[in-house]
Write a structure and sequence with these properties.
alpha/beta, 10 strands
Length: 294
């Protein structure tokens, strides 16, 4: 069976999995999707989401599961610390391989990923989607488990029909820092306030200074996570899932340039989204057929 190894952070993994499911359904090709614990994701799938069940969206030939200990080693990103051995072992196990850095270019030239996977014994490692997908594929795969769902319900309890979502990404993505400055978010929020004096704001951010600055400006209109964001622990990633689903419960999202996090939240909740960007509305870099492209 061909294998898709999810790489990168939360949003990127979710879009790749949705893409893989859409391909599996469209082409009746069995696929095994592995959730590995590696760079960008130090947390198991089952610590965040319910097991994936076969239904009218998830085909019999599709699986999404946590990688075993051996698979986490086997499919690790080759680095000096592991002597680049995974690069060799992948070649011994898989006849056909596409690694994540190539996917953007292959998408641009219309590469047939379905035909590639149909060869069998194929491997794709990916943090970017490669086949058009729909919101139903995303929501069928990613259902928060009981613990995470209770945290989401507590986080969104103060929300009203006047709550907007704001995602300000700062610590690990230079594109967001350069192209989505805080003053542009403030302009967008202030425009919303002019239209609706009952407005409340849910802020998702990985930057404590941003929280403090917006608290000073908007006071009790602003809701946000009580804890500092971190991506190097199960609790940190669990909080990221809560942040994403909380954004999906707002009625409009303002997101950061280059970040999949807020666009996936918009897909989950079928929520309108604007990407804050210096040169105007930013592109939504997803193969989601349910999202309007600017």
């Amino acid at each position: 069976m061909s294998v898709i190894v999810l790489e990168g952070g939360l949003g990127n993994r979710m879009r790749v999995a949705a893409s893989a499911l859409a391909l599996c359904n469209a082409k009746q090709q069995p696929l095994q999707v592995l959730w590995t614990e590696q760079w960008g994701m130090r947390c198991r799938f089952d610590n965040l989401f319910c097991p994936v069940k076969t239904d009218n969206v998830v085909a019999d030939g599709f699986s999404l599961r946590d990688a075993t200990t051996a698979e986490n080693i086997f499919y690790a990103r080759p680095t000096a610390s592991n002597l680049y051995l995974p690069a060799l072992t992948r070649r011994l196990r898989h006849k056909h391989i596409i690694l994540s850095p190539r996917i953007w270019h292959l998408n641009q030239v219309g590469f047939d990923f379905a035909a590639f996977l149909a060869q069998g014994n194929s491997l794709i490692t990916a943090y970017r989607d490669f086949f058009p997908w729909q919101r139903k594929h995303l929501t069928a795969l990613f259902r928060p488990n009981e613990r995470v769902d209770s945290l989401i319900r507590a986080r969104t309890a103060p929300f009203t029909s006047h709550t907007i979502g704001v995602h300000v990404r700062r610590t690990d993505l230079q594109q967001s820092i350069d192209e989505s400055p805080l003053d542009l978010f403030i302009e967008a929020i202030d425009r919303e306030l002019e239209l609706d004096c009952n407005l409340t704001i849910y802020l998702a951010t990985d930057d404590e200074a941003t929280k403090q600055e917006l608290f000073k400006r908007y006071g009790q209109r602003l809701f946000t996570a009580p804890d500092e964001a971190t991506r190097d622990s199960t609790e940190g990633i669990r909080n990221a899932v809560v942040e994403m689903f909380a954004l999906s419960y707002t009625h409009h999202i303002y997101g950061s340039s280059g970040s999949t996090f807020s666009t996936i939240a918009a897909c989950l909740g079928n929520v309108p989204i604007d990407i804050i960007q210096r040169n105007g509305r930013g592109n939504i870099d997803l193969l989601c057929q349910d999202m309007a492209k600017p």
